[in-house]
């Protein structure tokens, strides 16, 4: 149990000179962003995710089978836009990957710009988000999440992918000492799951009870904060900046 809470503490309050510097806490912030934008996309834009591509692939199968409430076009657009965003993020990784702080700051800045566009579209959109708003929102948000995922992959901070939780949850069990594993980093993995839940909960509360654009506003604030912090921290020649 003490190891569990130590994992959480060292993720949120990394020790000076740690291998990943401030990256773990910043990636937890990006995980919250994932919950916020997927709450918005699923609840406002129909049965489609902009971050969880596994869900979209499953939804595509449902749509092809004629299940009501699912759209082939929406699923394909989301996957295609996400792929393009991952391509852009991969390019950033190739060019900026030797400075992890600069990479995260650049990627978060571009993602913040895309979310700002989404905020404007959501503010202008009627509550039902007709196709003229729905598809542009799917595109800009999915591109941003593709950039985020490619960046997190390049940063390679253990157990903080910011989006894919299936392997995180699997690892917490399969790597556990209970089954003879070397240790599951259960605290960090639980924190990642919790961050996603918090983002989804806050996003759903805003969409259902306040206004549809507010989850995106919160996501924008988090992204700008991450961009500023990572830029400021990347100025020094710290060991964590190197891949």
Write the layout of secondary structure elements.
Layout: H1 2-12, H2 23-44, H3 53-64, H4 72-96, H5 100-124, H6 131-155, H7 166-174, H8 186-209, H9 214-233
Helix pairs in contact: 1-8, 2-6, 2-8, 2-9, 3-4, 4-5, 4-6, 5-6, 5-9, 7-8
Describe this structure in words.
The model has no long low-confidence stretch (mean pLDDT 89). The protein has nine helices and no strands. Helix 1 packs across helix 8 and helix 5 packs antiparallel against helix 6. It is globular, with a radius of gyration of 18 Å. The two termini are 31 Å apart. It has 243 residues and is an all-alpha fold. It has a single domain, classed as Growth Hormone, Chain: A, CATH 1.20.1250.
> Beta-strand level of the residues, as a percent range?
under 5%
Helix content: over 70%
Order of helical and strand elements: HHHHHHHHH
Number of domains: 1
- SS summary, helix count: 9
Distance linking N and C termini = 31 Å
Q: Describe the global form.
A: globular
**CATH overall fold name:** Growth Hormone, Chain: A
The CATH class assignment is Mainly Alpha
- Poorly predicted tracts of residues: none
Give the helix/strand class.
mainly alpha
CATH architecture: Up-down Bundle
Number of strands: 0
Please compute the radius of gyration using only Cα atoms: 18 Å
Largest sheet data = none
Mean pLDDT: 89
The multimeric state of the shown protein is: single chain
């Amino acid at each position: 149990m003490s190891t569990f809470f130590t994992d959480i503490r060292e993720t949120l309050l990394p020790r000076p000179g740690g291998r990943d510097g401030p990256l773990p806490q910043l990636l937890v912030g990006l995980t919250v962003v994932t919950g916020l934008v997927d709450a918005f996309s699923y609840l406002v834009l129909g049965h489609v995710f902009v971050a969880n591509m596994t869900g979209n692939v499953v939804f595509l199968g449902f749509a092809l089978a004629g299940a009501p409430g699912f759209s082939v076009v929406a699923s394909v657009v989301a996957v295609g836009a996400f792929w393009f965003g991952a391509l852009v993020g991969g390019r950033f990784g190739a060019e900026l990957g030797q400075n992890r702080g600069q990479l995260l700051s650049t990627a978060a800045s571009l993602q913040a710009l895309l979310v700002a566009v989404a905020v404007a579209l959501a503010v202008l959109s009627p509550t039902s988000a007709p196709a003229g708003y729905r598809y542009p929102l799917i595109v800009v948000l999915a591109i941003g999440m593709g950039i985020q995922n490619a960046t997190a992959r390049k940063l390679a901070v253990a157990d903080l992918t910011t989006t894919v939780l299936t392997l995180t949850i699997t690892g917490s069990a399969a790597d556990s000492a209970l089954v003879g594993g070397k240790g599951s980093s259960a605290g960090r993995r639980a924190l990642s799951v919790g961050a996603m839940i918090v983002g989804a909960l806050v996003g759903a509360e805003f969409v259902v009870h306040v206004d549809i654009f507010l989850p995106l506003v919160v996501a924008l604030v988090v992204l700008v904060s991450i961009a500023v912090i990572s830029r400021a921290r990347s100025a020094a020649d710290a060991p964590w900046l190197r891949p």
